[in-house]
């Protein structure tokens, strides 16, 4: 795999605890982030706390509550073993075995595996587009300017291609820009424009990449096509929400009417063969 930053998100440098001699802000922020992500999926766990890098009484209590909810010894201390449980969704998303006999199947199943592990951004230091999921998709980058929809798409393509022994960068450069991928698609003649896609849906295939067009050379959002049905496509996409925002906060399975939208399609066929 080319995109391996997620591995750094699976580790803390030392055991973290209230008034701990080895506490460091970055590790405490990681712990607080995962406590909040856990609380989103388990709202009655009492694991939500502020993300400020300070292992104070609130964080200690959140750790106690997490440990109780998971039937772990209630110490209020986070060593690597406890952190492993906190970060297990990220590890599962990137490292669980993915089935599929073709690259397209692997792309779809990889995307579905990430989706079921609930990737979600956080607001840290008043910056949206932050947190361990965003950093994993964006190679360590985070913060309000870092829209992460293409980072998510490339992480999925990279993970799936690596299973087949392929390098996704033969298809497109490592980038976080929809414009870069759209331009490459034009240059390689593998970008189906929305006008053509509307009249010939057979050109749209599951595991291809959709690009929402603002102008002919400006694209504002992306994701992976999972199915095509008449006038609509099903997708899995990052940095979106229920309204289909290009700057939402999660990975979602969405439905988009491509015949009423300006959606171009980037084919992964050259990587498949």
TrEMBL record:
Pfam families: CHAP, PG_binding_1. Signal peptide: none annotated. Residues 25-86 form the Peptidoglycan binding-like domain. Gene3D superfamilies: PGBD-like superfamily/PGBD. Residues 143-239 form the Peptidase C51 domain. InterPro entries: CHAP_dom, Peptidoglycan-bd-like, PGBD-like_sf, PGBDSf. Coiled coil: none annotated. This is Peptidoglycan-binding protein. It comes from Flavobacterium shii.
């Amino acid at each position: 795999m080319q995109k391996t930053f997620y591995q750094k998100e699976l580790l803390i440098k030392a055991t973290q605890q209230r008034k701990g001699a080895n506490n460091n802000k970055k590790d405490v922020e990681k712990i607080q982030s995962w406590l909040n992500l856990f609380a989103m999926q388990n709202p009655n766990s009492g694991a939500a706390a502020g993300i400020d890098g300070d292992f104070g009484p609130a964080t200690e209590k959140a750790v106690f509550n997490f440990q109780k909810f998971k039937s772990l010894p209630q110490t209020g201390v986070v060593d690597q073993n406890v952190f492993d449980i906190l970060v297990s969704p990220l590890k599962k998303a990137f490292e669980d075995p993915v089935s599929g006999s073709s690259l397209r199947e692997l792309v779809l199943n990889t995307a579905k595996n990430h989706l079921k592990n609930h990737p979600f951004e956080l607001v840290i230091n008043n910056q949206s587009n932050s947190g361990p999921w965003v950093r994993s998709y964006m190679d360590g980058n985070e913060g309000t300017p870092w829209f992460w929809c293409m980072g998510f798409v490339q992480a999925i393509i990279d993970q799936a291609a690596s299973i087949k022994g392929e390098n996704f960068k033969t298809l497109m450069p490592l980038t976080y820009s929809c414009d870069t991928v759209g331009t490459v698609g034009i240059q390689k003649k593998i970008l189906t424009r929305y006008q053509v896609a509307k009249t010939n849906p057979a050109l749209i295939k599951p595991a291809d990449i959709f690009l929402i067009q603002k102008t002919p050379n400006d694209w504002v959002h992306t994701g992976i096509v999972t199915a095509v049905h008449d006038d609509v496509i099903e997708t899995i996409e990052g940095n979106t929400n229920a309204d289909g925002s290009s700057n939402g906060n999660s990975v979602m399975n969405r439905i988009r009417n491509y015949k009423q939208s300006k959606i171009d399609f980037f084919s992964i066929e050259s990587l498949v063969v």
